[in-house]
Design goal:
about 240 residues, mainly alpha, about 75% helix, about 0% strand
């Protein structure tokens, strides 16, 4: 597959995403939810923050829901009204089409994630004020980069799971309760095993210090493995199932 063959498919998939209001709204919600909840968390903190960097990036736990919704709905739209049949008629090679769809999901989330990380760092640091040390340049750069990569990987995880289930509702029905409830409960009960859950592993990059078995980059690598597994399962399902 050459770049000349791939570019028109990618452009087509990006046009689909760009023209759906729900998609552009989800991208905007990634930024707004992360910054808003980070600012609220910083304003509600009494006394010095035990982990100032994570206090600044606390809102990522909510912004990721919008990223997951973006990835899921971008794929689920193909399973409505025979849209996938039309897409595959235009691009018979399913692997090429799926790669273009995933790229069209990943690139805008990565761009919005970088903007979100920079804005959150600025707003969150200002909100904490003198109650915590301002994150240093190294920690700040790591957290901004980690924020963008983490949100992108979670969007791809949702896209892969949606392809497996052929339903955005089904994927969101699994992921959102998991991220908001199950992960915290399992994390409190299971010790170090919970460090390898996709959200907990990826968010290590947003901490000033960590006590678990994973570091910032190994944590993101674990989240990447979860996303790769979901995408791989989605690619297999796409090849095996009729449109």
């Amino acid at each position: 597959m050459t770049l000349a063959d791939f570019t028109p498919v990618l452009r087509s998939e990006w046009i689909k995403i760009r023209t759906l209001r729900s998609q552009t709204g989800a991208l905007g919600a990634v930024l707004l939810a992360t910054v808003a909840f980070s600012a609220l968390a910083g304003a509600d903190t009494d006394g010095p923050a035990s982990d100032p960097l994570f206090s600044v990036f606390f809102g990522v736990s909510f912004g990721q829901i919008a990223a997951v919704a973006f990835g899921a709905t971008a794929v689920s739209a193909e399973f409505q009204g025979g849209a996938l049949r039309v897409s595959l008629a235009a691009v018979p090679r399913r692997g090429r089409w799926f790669a273009a769809k995933l790229t069209a999901i990943a690139l805008p989330v990565l761009a919005v994630g970088l903007l979100t990380g920079l804005t959150t760092l600025a707003v969150g640091s200002a909100t904490l004020g003198d109650r915590a040390e301002t994150p240093g340049p190294t920690d700040g750069l790591r957290a901004v980069t980690g924020c963008a990569l983490y949100l992108t990987l979670m969007a791809l995880l949702a896209a892969g799971l949606t392809t497996v289930l052929r339903s955005g509702t089904g994927a969101l029905g699994i992921l959102i309760p998991f991220l908001l409830v199950v992960s915290f409960v399992v994390g409190d009960l299971s010790g170090n095993a919970a460090d390898f859950l996709p959200d907990r592993a990826g968010q290590v990059a947003l901490h000033t210090r960590w006590d678990g078995s994973l570091g910032p980059w190994t944590g993101l690598a674990v989240t990447a493995l979860w996303a790769a597994a979901a995408v791989g399962a989605g690619a297999w399902r796409l090849r095996r199932r009729d449109a």
